[in-house]
Amino acid sequence: MADLKALKQKKLIRTAAVILLLLTAVTVWWLIPVRPLRGCEPEEITRITATGFPGAGTVTLDAEETLRVAENLYQCKAKRAGISFGRMGWVYQLHIFKGDSLVRTFSVIGSDRARDSMFFYKPASGSYCIEYLNALSEKYSPKAPK
Fold this sequence. Notes:
37% of the residues lie in helices and 32% in strands. It is elongated. The protein contains three helices and seven strands, in the order αββαβββββα. The protein has two domains: 1-32; 35-140, Dna Ligase, domain 1 (2-Layer Sandwich), CATH 3.30.1490.
């Protein structure tokens, strides 16, 4: 009887240890900053198309604009700020290409929030270049008639 009780205690301790280890791993994963443009160097990005410029539809940024946005996203580090599942909306949606392959779709919601796949992100360092995207919006949006 004592052996059965000791065996149950060991099993309970092992289960608690595994659960604690999993919780620790998930917490560390959640808190570690990530790069919005991970897996690519800015120079490898061949094209960025942007949606969200009023009246302009989807715009393909020129080479200089593409490099500037790519460098900004590469230098920025972001922390997860919540799950975006079921929540919609964005100010600018960027489609990032390497060659002819789409490597990432990144939605900029504001200067302090973005969405990439299932998560919202807040910048830990750097920014999402919202001011530059706003300036591009002015450049690419059709001018109102006078």
